[in-house]
Structure formats: structure tokens, C-alpha cells
Design goal:
Blueprint: H1 10-19, E1 30-38, E2 47-48, H2 51-66, E3 71-73, E4 87-97, E5 100-107, H3 111-116, H4 122-131, E6 137-143, E7 146-148, E8 154-156, E9 161-168, E10 178-179, H5 182-185, H6 195-212
Parallel strand pairs: 2-8
Antiparallel strand pairs: 1-5, 1-10, 3-4, 4-5, 6-9, 7-8
């Protein structure tokens, strides 16, 4: 209970009154798009995830997506257990584009943040960062063994199991940022050829050859 007659509470009450305009602070649901992972690409931790391992883990992860338990935390703890009081988001869909695992993610917000901008959970914190256009991304959390490759890189082995993807400020996978829509993410996708560009290059090559002949 917050007493309106208590002078110390007056600044807080005044702020709440400013927000009582009948307008939402942020729209619900808050859906964003993410680059989750890339296979065959060296990440910031010196690791490489082979294709067959990531594809298999994505297939297994679909059960969590169907059950709405594909949740993750803000920040990246060492624990293999997802803490309920730190959950910030839920992944609702994944798909492959070339070497890149894409994701559709819902930021979990409270009514207090949606209506009044009061931040009380990790989901609210993530939403507030995005509202302020802070650049954040995602990073996978999993368990498994590594094997050193020829060039000193660490190759993830087939006992790897994905736990979740967490929201972080410095993702380990290259360009694994959070985007407003898929189109914003496309320039950072690995392994997808732009057929139109390739066609244009092919036509240019043929034209140049014709002019030289």
C-alpha cells in the first residue's frame, strides 16, 4: 500500500499520474527476430558448431517451442538450470536460412510495464532496452564436450545439448543480434546466396565478354 498522504511518496505518485493517459507504454505481444546460431562458422569463443549437431538440436528444441517452454534469461549464467525469476523471453519459432538458424522470439512483459512503464522483471528490462534502441543479442547455453581442430579451434562434439538461448550484450555467434523484422536480419545471414545478384553478375560477365570479342 502506498499512502497518498505520505510526503515521501508524492514524487512517485506524480510520476504514475503522468503515465495515466490511457495509452500503452509498449505494444503486446512484443515479437522480435533473432539470429540464433550458425554452423561451420568460428564464434567469439573459438568454437565451431558442425551442421549435423545444430540441425539435430534444433529438431529436439521444437518440443520446447510447442510446449511454450523455450525460455531463456537476461545475461548468460554458468548454470545448466534456467532460473524462473530471471526468464525474459520465449522462442516461438525457428527456421534455417543457409548456415544460419533464425528465430522468432516473444519478450515476456508484465502489465505494469506494458501500461505504466514500471520495470519489475527481466523481460521488462529487455523490453526497456529495446524501447531505448540498445543493441542486444542472443547467445546459446548448452552442455557438451569440445575437440581441438587443426588450427586450434574448438569443435563442438555430438554429445552437445542445447539448454536455451539467453539475451546478452555481446553474443558469441557473429552478428547474433535482435532485430525488428526478418528483413533487418537478412544481411547478417551466412550461407544464403542472393540469386538476383548472381544473375546480374552473370549477365555482366556475358556482356563484358561480348564487348571484348
Amino acid at each position: 500500500y502506498i499512502s497518498p498522504d505520505e510526503p515521501r511518496n508524492q514524487p512517485f505518485i506524480n510520476e504514475i499520474k503522468k503515465l495515466e493517459t490511457g495509452k500503452l507504454v509498449i505494444a503486446e505481444p512484443l515479437i522480435v527476430y533473432v539470429i540464433l546460431q550458425k554452423y561451420g562458422v568460428l564464434n567469439r569463443n573459438g568454437r565451431i558448431y558442425p551442421k549435423e549437431i545444430l540441425v539435430k538440436q534444433d529438431q529436439i528444441y521444437q518440443k520446447a517451442i510447442r510446449e511454450r517452454s523455450a525460455v531463456g534469461e537476461l545475461d548468460h549464467p554458468e548454470s545448466s538450470v534456467i532460473a524462473g525469476d530471471r526468464i525474459s523471453h520465449n522462442i516461438v519459432e525457428t527456421w534455417w536460412e543457409g548456415q544460419t538458424l533464425m528465430g522468432k522470439m516473444e519478450i515476456l512483459m508484465t502489465p505494469g510495464f506494458i501500461n505504466y512503464g514500471i520495470v519489475s522483471t527481466k523481460g521488462d528490462e529487455v523490453a526497456n532496452l529495446l524501447r531505448n534502441r540498445i543493441k542486444i543479442g542472443v547467445s546459446s547455453r548448452g552442455v557438451g564436450s569440445l575437440k581441438e581442430g587443426r588450427n586450434g579451434e574448438q569443435i563442438v562434439q555430438d554429445d552437445f545439448e542445447i539448454i536455451c538461448w539467453d539475451v546478452v550484450t555481446a553474443p558469441s555467434t557473429p552478428d547474433a543480434w535482435i532485430f525488428k523484422n526478418v528483413e533487418e536480419a537478412r544481411p547478417f545471414v551466412e550461407g544464403v546466396e542472393n540469386k538476383k545478384d548472381n544473375l546480374n553478375e552473370s549477365l555482366k560477365d556475358k556482356l563484358n565478354k561480348f564487348l571484348l570479342d
